[in-house]
Write a structure and sequence with these properties.
Layout lengths: L13 E5 L15 H15 L2 E5 L11 E4 L2 H5 L5 E3 L5 H13 L9 H4 L2 E2 L3 H8 L1
Parallel strand pairs: 1-2
Antiparallel strand pairs: 1-3, 3-4, 4-5
Helix pairs in contact: 1-3
């Protein structure tokens, strides 16, 4: 019987950017250039080796724009867990996200103190999924 050895994948830090009903909606938040923010995050990912992906509604719509920072494999091994960032709409927040992800993200690098002020609790269903 041939058994393959499963090795953990060395997944980089990943930014999951909500682009659902409220987040990224220029009608709801006309003062924010949502496309530019996503382009900037993707450019940072290409330069520094982390990942960016988009998803539909993450849930806490009253805290839009929401971005989840998922730890890398190394970060998870070091105890890092996904961190939810709310109200991620201005240049300063985007800068902080880029710096933290480039430095390794949760479990590897300490987040910028101003970004910590934007940490939000994940919706109830996300917390229950994380415990499984």
């Amino acid at each position: 019987m041939n058994r393959s050895v499963l090795r953990p994948v060395n997944r980089p830090c990943t930014l999951v950017v909500c682009r659902g009903c409220c987040c990224g909606n220029p009608r709801k938040y006309p003062g924010t250039d949502h496309t530019w923010q996503l382009d900037r995050l993707r450019a940072g990912a290409a330069e520094h080796g982390f990942q960016v992906r988009t998803t539909d509604c993450l849930g806490p719509c009253d805290q839009a724009n929401v971005i989840v920072v998922q730890p890398s494999t190394a970060g998870r091994r070091a105890g890092g867990r996904a961190i939810w960032i709310g109200f991620a709409m201005d240049d300063a927040c985007t800068d902080d996200l880029l710096i933290w992800a480039a430095d390794g993200g949760p479990g590897v690098a300490v987040p910028p103190p101003t970004l910590e002020l934007q940490f939000v609790a994940p919706p109830r269903e996300a917390r229950s999924r994380a415990r499984r």
